[in-house]
Structures are given as structure tokens and as C-alpha cells.
Amino acid sequence: MSNKILLVTLVLMVGLIGVMSWKVKSASVLGATAGSETISLSTDPNPLRPGRATFVIEVRDAGGEPVDNATVSYDLNMTTMNMGIQQGSATPLGRGRYTATGNLSMRGPWRVRTKVIMPDERTENKDFVINVP
Ligand SMILES: [Cu+2]
Questions:
Q1: Which residues form the YtkA-like domain (predicted)?
Q2: How many CB atoms lie within 10 A of CB 70?
Q3: Contacts of 30 (CB under 8 A, 6+ apart)
């Protein structure tokens, strides 16, 4: 190996280690769990009231970056009784956000089940219990 190639290899390795340690550091600052995506839910209105509501499901990768090009579906029902399942696909909004609507026809606890097929085909599920006061 020539000295020049050796030098280039060395510089690349030092650079790579630098990037890796920076990533680990920023992940711990954000409180992210390494190796897992984050799926979060917000509602409009907030706080909820009986009637139609809009749900925004936000998907972030293990590094905290928004994930677009995921396929997000959901279903909705009360936790305490069967009100009939409302389900469908969430519509991409960009910046890792996907939106869906539902009819929260009664006060009480409702479950929003989300299913996210990541761009690499892995499936993540997350359930949220929301209360309509
Ligand atoms: Cu009910």
C-alpha cells in the first residue's frame, strides 16, 4: 500500500469515528432510544371533545429524523365497549407526519392503534389511549 492510500484511509477512519461519536452524543442529548423509531400522536382538537377529530401520527427514526415514505394505517375504537372499528390509511403530510380522522362519538377512553410499515419494510405498531372528557 502506498503512503498516500494509507494516509487517505487513516483520515477516513478518523472522520468516521468522529461522526459516530457525534451521533451517539446527540442521541443521548435528545433522549432517543438507540435502534428504535418513535411514533407519536397528537389530536385536534386538544383537549378532545365528542365528535370528529383529526389525528396526526408522527414517525421519527432512531436518530430523531422524520420518516417520510412510510405506510401508516390506523384503527379506532373505544377501550371499554365495541363502538364499531373505524379504520383506514393515514395521509402523508411530509416531515414524518401522517394524518387521519375519526368520529369520537362518545365521551370516555378510545384506543388509536397505529401500524407503520417503515421504508425498509419493517412494521412497527403502537397503541395510544386517548380520553374524551
Ligand atoms: Cu362507547
A1: 38-114
A2: 23
A3: 64
C-alpha cell at 64: 430523531
Report the chain's terminal Cα–Cα distance, integer Å. 71
State the distance from the centre of ligand 1 to the C-alpha of 129, rounded, in angstroms. Answer: 14
Distance 91 CA to ligand 1 centre (A): 26
CA of 83 to the centre of ligand 1 (A): 6
Q: Kindly report the backbone phi and psi dihedral angles of residue 84, in degrees, each rounded to the nearest multiple of 5, phi listed first.
A: 90, 130
- Rounded to whole angstroms, the Cα distance separating 110 from 108 reads 7
What is the whole-number distance in angstroms between the Cα of residue 30 and the centre of ligand 1?
38
Ligand 1 mean position to 49 CA, how many Å?
14
What's the pLDDT tens digit per position in 90-99? 999 999 999 9
pTM for the model: 0.73
Helices and strands (DSSP H and E) totals, the chain: 1, 8
Summarised one tens digit per residue, pLDDT across range 53-80 is 999 999 999 999 999 999 999 999 999 9
What is the chain's alpha carbon radius of gyration, rounded to the nearest angstrom? 21
